[in-house]
Specification:
This protein has about 850 residues and is an alpha+beta fold. It folds into four domains: about 85-140, no CATH class; about 145-300, 7 Propeller (Methylamine Dehydrogenase, Chain H); about 300-440 and about 500-550, no CATH class; about 565-750 and about 775-850, Rossmann fold (3-Layer(aba) Sandwich). About 20% of the residues lie in helices and about 30% in strands. The strands form ten sheets. It has a nine-stranded mixed beta sheet, with helices on both faces. It is globular, with a radius of gyration of 28 Å.
Length: about 850
């Protein structure tokens, strides 16, 4: 793309000196030219960061008008003064107000009208905080943030009576929170809040006991690992606090909270692959914690307690322990233990199994069976039978209903049933009769069943590609092995069954908003890529569904104007990869500019969700694509296992193969394709840029984990030891070292230091050299790079993207970086600032696609 501004085009990146530092492990030597940038307090580093920010502004100055346009478009879609639906917690209804011009929300509450008050009060959404009769401002983040460039609320916990509030804030972005205790029933003479003198500074989190008399808080070590739990008696000096638990294993993190039934203080400790739960009754907070089930290496579990009220033969309650674990099933199972007949200790796998995931394709399951093979198990509810990639994600028992969360066919699902029916099924020894929770469709929407479908159209008659786009099946020798058009076949499960009235959108669904055990109705939330979030309430006995709130999107927005569908591409090793596509229905997805984004790590799923900022891209004809690559959790544990440790390259290959498949199908134009990913997804971006630079015109890498090998080799860096379960341990395992070295983006990127070898045509640092021109081939065809990072990031240290940036620029790659000096891993705070930031990023991405208005 030609820069329209000559001054911007003429700007030169800052010079970064080279000070080679020798690194030697397992017989391999690497000279790191830019490791000197790790000294954050060095004036030289600070000057270099400032110079890079000035260079970025020079390069971006011609997009100022476009950025402003995108910001105003985004703002025009947002109901700036609004409020959330009130949620009952104990004796109050809690809700959040947002106000036009204010960066942060205001937490408010109103008292319930009686013990049986389960209908939210009518509150004027346009009113000022505290303006309704009985309304009280609990926490105004706008006032608390005054004087700070960065502000993040770490959490709020309240005593059962609602008087005492425990809250934590971070004003630097380093994810260490300062906690205070505030009296919500009193004010000082000047009107300021009354706070107790004790302070908990630089901690990881904290919780009250229900009576508000004790605080349990989390200490963080020098490596930013939450590792110890302390007990504090409210009203006493913090210096007298007692350490009640210390986690010695550096792979494990520790946290503390209160059980859902408020009967136990719970310490949860875990690594990436092993967990343990320790408990102490809230009635005896000075007692000793004990493990519910002692930890077993490679086993994850959680436990909660509930009961079947009045279900005993004499009308008594049946106390239950509900255990979620993967001791016998890698995709987890849920066991319910009748505690009338079983005293502790307990072991994993006992009780009645009410749901079990699919072991297909898992390392510790049936590894030879395909992940996508239909799974049947007689213990499972009928709705789970025949599911593909089935993973069980949790169960919740309330007084009147039970909810089950699971994944199948690459998407999240929720099922529910009345509590009395669950008790009957449990006592009868039969599978529980869950019903899947299906969000209602929109009237006259395209997601209703189409009468006719053609092979060359999408699931609902929309044109995706033309007949002349079809090409023969790619051969095994094809450069990417991604294949041709028939590799983007429709197979999403939600669109092929043609159930009348069922939504066809690629939605996310969850049962948030149910903090009260006694609530008679169940709340659930729902959204899709093109349908704004909705909060519903359903009566589990009758199935009556009530819409409580639909997110308002202004500016003439109509979800029916946007299309979304799931296609599957075949990766080079034969695995089928789901890919979500979104586009404007008036802009056929044919040779379109494409924004393709992915993550693929930590078993985190990239599920559908609505974004107001995405509309500006879709309205300009951009195809939005999300390959659900291995390393995530979309298809269960096996999907994760096939994209981590010594399988990590599958994540990168899946992303490239999905990109190629969409481009070969003539859906997307490689000359206008921009890829995006953040954190571990930033590692993905660096890797695919090295692997297949010809597929991408530009790449946006946010807080990218691009110097992965250097970081994972150093156990003194924040989080390193805990990360060995995810990436492997290159410090002690030479195979892991060699494998990570082969893909870590920084070491495999083109570099100006390669010049000495260019004339000889040698392969240097993973870069192919074109000896006829004396220019590294990779650098000559590298995509444009835009990097975002933060100086206070504790998860991916700023030095990683900074070193990568210097190496790329030294090789002549067009790379720029926007470096926040105040924020942390999550970026800047404040909604207007965040809107400006996303507009800045989107302007660059679309400019690379040749869209600048």
């Amino acid at each position: 793309m030609t820069e329209p501004n000559n001054n911007a085009a003429a700007a030169m990146p800052p010079y970064a000196k080279r000070e080679p530092k020798r690194r030697e492990f397992h017989g391999d030597v690497f000279f790191d030219d830019y490791e000197w940038m790790r000294d954050k307090e060095s004036p030289e580093v600070r000057d270099y960061v400032a110079a890079q920010n000035r260079y970025c502004e020079q390069r971006m100055v011609h997009l100022a008008g476009f950025r402003s346009t995108l910001f105003e478009e985004l703002k025009s879609h947002v109901e700036e003064t609004d409020m959330s639906v009130p949620t009952r917690i104990n004796d109050y209804w809690y809700f959040t107000r947002t106000q036009q011009g204010k960066q942060y929300g205001v937490q408010c509450r109103m008292p319930v009208r009686g013990e049986d008050d389960w209908d939210p009060p009518e509150v004027d959404p346009k009113g000022e905080p505290g303006s309704m009769p009985g309304e009280q401002v609990v926490f105004d983040a706008n006032a608390e943030a005054e004087g700070h460039d960065f502000f993040r609320l770490g959490g709020i916990d309240l005593s059962r009576d609602g008087r005492w509030m425990l809250y934590g804030v971070d004003v630097s972005g380093d994810e260490r929170y300062d906690y205070r205790i505030r009296d919500l029933a009193a004010r000082n003479e000047d009107g300021s809040p009354v706070e107790l003198p004790e302070q908990f500074n630089g901690i990881g989190g904290a919780c009250f006991t229900p009576d508000g008399q004790w605080v349990f808080w989390v200490e963080i070590d020098d490596s930013w690992r939450p590792f110890a739990i302390w007990r504090h008696r409210v009203g006493t000096s913090v210096e007298s606090d007692v350490c009640v638990y210390r986690e010695a294993d550096e792979r494990f993190w520790a946290g503390v909270g209160i059980s859902f039934d408020e009967r136990n203080i719970v310490i949860g400790t875990g690594s990436k692959t092993t967990t343990e739960v320790l408990m102490l009754p809230t009635a005896t907070p000075e007692g000793e914690f004990s493990a519910f089930i002692p930890r077993q290496d490679g086993v994850e579990y959680d436990v909660s307690f509930a009961c079947f009220e009045g279900a005993g033969e004499d009308g008594s309650d049946i106390p239950l322990a509900v255990v979620y674990h993967n001791a016998n099933n890698p995709n987890f199972e849920i066991d319910v233990i009748d505690m009338r007949r079983h005293e502790p200790p307990y072991r994993l796998g006992e009780g009645v199994c009410v749901a079990a995931g699919s072991p297909y394709g898992c390392e510790h399951g049936e590894i030879d069976k395909p992940i996508t093979e239909a799974y049947y198990n007689p213990v499972n509810p009928a709705i789970l039978e025949g599911a593909h990639g089935l993973g069980i994600e949790g169960i919740a028992l309330h007084r009147h209903f039970v909810t089950l969360s699971y994944r199948s066919d690459g998407q999240p699902h929720v099922a529910y049933m009345p509590k009395d029916a669950a008790a009957a099924d449990f006592l009868a020894g039969r599978p529980w009769r869950f019903r899947e929770l299906l969000p209602p469709p929109l009237d006259n929407d395209w997601d209703m069943v189409a009468a006719e479908r053609d092979d060359e159209t999408g699931d609902h008659g929309e044109w995706l590609w033309t007949e002349d786009a079809k090409v023969p099946e790619a051969s095994a020798s094809d450069v990417n092995g991604a294949g041709a058009v028939d590799h983007t076949s429709s197979s999403d499960g939600a669109s092929d069954d043609h159930l009348p009235g069922e939504t066809r959108r690629l939605y996310s669904i969850g049962t948030g908003g149910n903090p009260s055990y006694d609530a008679p109705r169940m709340r659930y939330s729902f959204s899709s890529y093109t349908r704004p979030g909705e909060l519903h309430e359903i009566d589990p006995a009758t199935g009556q569904d009530t819409l409580l709130k639909r997110a308002t999107v202004l500016g003439g927005f109509d979800p029916r104007d946007y299309m979304e569908r799931r296609v599957w591409i075949t990766a080079r090793d034969g695995e089928r990869i789901p890919v979500s596509l979104v586009w404007h229905r008036d802009c056929p997805a044919q040779d379109a500019p494409m924004f393709i984004t992915g993550y693929g790590a930590y078993e985190i799923s990239s599920d559908p969700g609505f974004s107001v900022s995405r509309l500006s891209m879709l309205d300009r004809g951009v195809l939005y694509a999300v390959p659900h690559i291995r390393g995530g959790g979309e298809m269960g544990r096996a999907w994760y296992e096939q994209g981590r440790r010594l399988n990590k390259k599958h994540s990168f290959e899946d992303f490239v193969d999905a990109t190629c498949a969409l481009q070969r199908a003539r859906l997307a134009d490689p000359r206008r394709t921009v890829a995006n990913g953040g954190s571990a997804g930033g590692l993905l971006m660096g890797a695919v840029a090295n692997m297949a630079p010809e597929c991408y015109a530009g790449i946006e890498a946010d807080v990218p984990f691009v110097d992965a090998l250097t970081s994972i080799l150093d156990p003194d860096l924040p989080l390193t030891v805990t990360e060995w379960d995810e990436w492997g341990d290159p410090l002690h395992d030479p195979d892991v070292y060699r494998y990570m070295k082969s893909y870590t983006p920084y070491e495999n990127a083109p570099s100006g230091a390669d010049a000495g070898a260019e004339a000889a045509g040698e392969n240097v640092g993973g870069t192919d050299v074109d000896s006829t021109e004396g220019v590294p081939t990779l650098a000559a065809h590298f995509p444009k790079i835009f990097i975002t990072t933060s100086m206070n990031d504790t998860r991916v240290l700023y030095v990683e993207p900074l070193k990568w940036l210097a190496r790329l620029q030294s090789a002549g790659v067009d790379a720029v970086a926007k470096i926040e000096v105040e924020a942390g891993h999550g970026g800047i705070s404040g909604r207007y600032k965040q809107w400006e930031e996303v507009s800045y990023e989107n302007a660059w991405c679309m400019a690379v696609m040749h869209i600048t208005r």
